[in-house]
Amino acid sequence: MEELEKKFKCPFCLEKISMLLDLSQDGEQSYIEDCEVCCNPIQISYSAYEGKIKGFLADKSSGF
């Protein structure tokens, strides 16, 4: 599995955090992961192509 550490600001607490993104498959990925600082759910969306990130968004989760 090809992974990349992506650093960004939490949309809730604005602390700088990082998450590992799986770049082994081309295409779009979307999932919810909790912030390691404030524990709020963050909607992570990104697209990968040939092992590189082509787009990334970390937004407040709307819940289920």
Short description:
With 64 residues, this protein is mostly beta strands.
Characteristic terms for this protein:
single chain; 64 residues; 5 strands
Layout: helices, strands, pairs:
Layout: E1 3-9, E2 16-22, E3 27-34, E4 41-49, E5 52-60
Antiparallel strand pairs: 1-2, 3-4, 4-5
Please explain how this structure is put together.
By secondary structure, the chain is mainly beta. It has one domain (3-60). 0% of the residues lie in helices and 62% in strands. The strands form two sheets. A three-stranded antiparallel β-sheet has the order 3-4-5, with no helix packed on it. Strands 1-2 form a two-stranded antiparallel ribbon. The chain is globular. 5% of the residues are buried.
Low-confidence stretches: none
Structural class: mainly beta
The count of β-strands is: 5
Radius of gyration over all CA atoms, rounded: 12 Å
The number of distinct helices, counting runs of at least 4 residues, comes to: 0
Major sheet: size, sense and barrel closure? 3 strands, antiparallel
- Listing every helix as H and every strand as E from the N terminus to the C terminus, the arrangement reads EEEEE
How many structural units, i.e. domains?
1
Oligomer: single chain
If strands are numbered along the chain, what order do they take across the biggest sheet? 3-4-5
Beta-strand residue fraction: over 45%
What general outline do the C-alpha atoms trace?
Answer: globular
Helix share, percent: under 10%
